[in-house]
Structures are given as structure tokens and as C-alpha cells.
Amino acid sequence: MGSILTLRNIGYRYDGEDWAIKGIDLDVREGEILGILGPNGSGKSTVLKVMDKLLVPQEGDIKIRGRNYHGIKRSAFAREVAMVAQENHFRFSFSCLEVVLMGRFPHLKRLQFEGKKDMDTAINALRVTHALELAGRSIYDLSGGEKQRVLLARALAQEPKVILLDEPTSFLDLKYRREIFKMISSLSREKGVSVVLVSHDIDLAAHYCHSLVVLKNGRVFAMGKPDDVVTTQAVEDVYECPVFVDRNPLTGKPRVNIN
Q: How far apart are CA 188 and CA 1, in angstroms?
């Protein structure tokens, strides 16, 4: 699979501060789930915001399908990349269907209303994310897991090549964390969508991601397959916490145990 999104020597710093990220090289391949791990303040969300054009790096180059990021208008860019942020606030009590239809805006001309294709795309996105039964409910009335499914449906309705997820399982219980990761895996496999996700859940990321990147102090500490990245030494060095990494007896994937 070829690279759909590439970052080369990316550096970004906030005003008057040290580099938040420095020398970041990443390749996101078609249909791949790439997980970004690291402690708080390691630069994970900054990398994601740079990918989403919310931040313009002071160093380096970013390309999507061989095109330079800076030459792509926001509406065209939104047809390539969709973002599900960690915090999502709505000023009005939109229905879940209305929220998902917001994902169709990049495909509409100015002052154009949604048509049958847009409605069909939104309904299908809700169906794929197992949220169709929520279509008529207010976004205000949902549980955390239900809201995440609707937000994933909105991103999917954009028909992007890449979906960026910032802590998609934050504040969710075990059932919904597993459900969201399974859904992401299914979207990647069945729709061919590339996914980049930031997560603190090392075990779930190691289980569902094809590749992992571990950041420390804004730099890439380790990169590769989960089996190669999630090791006792690496986790202890990055998180500065005594751990023991073994294998999940059911899946064979790396599992982190805190000593």
C-alpha cells in the first residue's frame, strides 16, 4: 500500500515556547490505522492539528497523495481529511442526522442545500457506525459512546481518505472503548479509509493499530509494528513508570502491566 499522507521533518512551536514537536517524519498508508502514543505533553495532539491544517508548521513539508498541503483550499482539503476532535460542542440541540449532514458541507456549493445523495450518504454513515437508531435524537441527549459513533458518522459522511481521531475513547467505559476501536478497524478494512488516532490506551492501540508511533518530548521515540514498539523497556523509558509487557493469552498482542 502506498503512502497517502506524508510528513517530513515537521517542526512546530507555539509563540515564545520551545519546540512542541521537532523532526517528525510519518507515513500514513492507504487503509492503515496508525496510532500515536505518548505521555501528556509529548506532542500527540499537536501532530494531529498539523495534519488537519489547524496549525501551520514552521519547519518541514506535508503532502497528501503527492500534493502539498499549503496549495489545497480548505473545502477541497476537507474532502480528503476529516477530524474528530477530543472536545465537540454544539450551540444548538441538533438532531444526530443534522450533525452527520454537517459532514457533507465540503461537497456542497455556496448556499446549496443537501440533496438526495447527501441524505443517502449521511444515512449510510449512521448505519455503518451502528447509530441509525439515533438519527432523530438530540446530540445533547446521547451517552459518550453514542456521541462518538455519531461523530465518526459525520467524519465518514465527508467521504475522506483520512480520518484523524484525537482520543476517541476518552471518558468511555471499557465496553465503549472496545466498541469504538472495533468500529475504527472495520471502517479501515471495509472502506479503505486511513485512520490516524491519538490514544492513551496502549493495549487497545497495540491490538487494533497496524503501526504505532511513540512520542517523547515532541520527538519520535519509536516507530513500527506494535510488537516491535510496545516493549517493557520502551514503555518504561517513555512513560517513566515501572511496567512489564507480556502477551495477551487470547490475542497474542502486547499487554502492559503496571508494576
A: 13
